[in-house]
Amino acid sequence: MTLVLGNEDVLKVLTMRDTIEALELLYADLGRGSAVYRGRTDLFTPTTGGPPDIPTAYQLKTLDGAIPRWNVGAIRVTSDVVAFPLVGGARRRTKIPAAAGKRYVGLVLLLDSATGELAAILQDGVLQQYSVGAINAIGAKYLAREDSRTVALFGAGGQAGPQLRGLCKVRRISRVQVYTPTPEEAEAFAHANAQPLGIEIVPAGSPQAALAGADIVVTATNSRVPFFPAAWLAPGMHLSALQRDEAMPDCFRELDRVVFHTRAKEVEHVSTDFAALEQRFGFIMRDHPPSDLDWNAFPDLADLVGGRVAGRSHPQQRTFFLNSTGCGAQYAAVGQLILKEARRHGLGHELPGEWFTEGVAP
């Protein structure tokens, strides 16, 4: 049988602690060359699903990976309508809920590598949030000072909460200073998350107020324009960025330890039909603006967990973990964890396995 699991099922069984433990095992396997994955593939074509006055595209994104430890493979597929509006003069990336009922489309296909069968189909929203929070937490485990207590948080969207949940599992976080350009968002985030996390969360009126006394800095924004300079990071601080367009180029040159999530950069296939739109808006249609940053110049998380590169070696070092892009194997690792617990609790909807197998060799 193939199990179909929605986000509400995932929330019932997935914990941040278990996610961190599973992913740390994965990156140890990747460091040994046991688990494997390919870099992300993005397809961009024009779409009629977005507003006419903002550069908009259809983005079909796939990632895959396989882990012998758990006899599992996975493919993550997102089918998105994305817009790149100007907000306060800076370009942002936003997903448009264009599906029926104002919903999004993102799935993880979980495959049994012992039989080749489709074991499960999972909605990817909660899985993605937990895995990204756990990945950055693993980076902080190796790079942030052990006595880190205060977090400066930039951004208050859907990824911000899981970032804090992950950090709280690897460091004794007691205070968060959250900044967004919209003060109401920071206030709402603080109100919604302080009690569940059991920590003090206060809105900050400026980037400098957020950074005051911080040990760890988290950038959890959708900015496509770098805004965080190396000078903002004081000695001893750790910077954790959710995507590469947040940190300014000097962060990659000047900070003492820089580790990428993965060196596998996405491969983009872009329709030539964007020419007129790109000329009109002065914007190159990509998920991320072009950059001459050499990804191969930096170690990745598998190097860090596997011990091939050192983590923090001095309390005054300034360290930086960049969640550069997704790794397909992370969905296999967390997906198998969800499937095991969902079966144990009788969750999800079963579909006949023969619907997804065939008698003719393809």
Task: Present the secondary structure layout.
Elements: E1 2-5, H1 7-13, H2 16-32, E2 36-45, E3 56-67, E4 72-83, E5 86-87, E6 90-91, E7 94-96, E8 106-112, E9 118-123, H3 125-143, E10 150-154, H4 160-170, E11 175-179, H5 183-197, E12 200-203, H6 207-211, E13 216-219, E14 238-241, H7 249-254, E15 257-260, E16 267-270, H8 275-281, H9 301-305, E17 319-322, H10 328-344, E18 349-351
Helix pairs in contact: 2-3, 2-10, 3-4
Largest sheet, strands/sense/barrel: 9 strands, mixed
Under the CATH scheme, the architecture of the largest domain is 2-Layer Sandwich
Number of strands: 18
The CATH topology annotation of the largest domain reads as: ornithine cyclodeaminase, domain 1
Proportion of residues in β-strands: 25-35%
Structural class: alpha/beta
Work out the count of structural domains: 2
- Globally, the shape reads globular
> Which percent range fits the helix content?
25-40%
Radius of gyration: 20 Å
Q: Please report the number of helical segments.
A: 10
Termini distance? 21 Å
Low-confidence stretches: none
The chain-level mean pLDDT equals 95
Fourth CATH level, the homologous superfamily of the largest domain:
ornithine cyclodeaminase, domain 1
CATH class of the largest domain: Alpha Beta
- One letter per element, helices H and strands E, the order comes to EHHEEEEEEEEHEHEHEHEEHEEHHEHE
Task: Sum this structure up briefly.
With 362 residues, the chain is an alpha/beta fold. The chain contains ten helices and 18 strands. The chain folds into two domains: 2-127 and 328-356, ornithine cyclodeaminase, domain 1 (2-Layer Sandwich); 145-264 and 288-322, NAD(P)-binding Rossmann-like Domain (Rossmann fold).
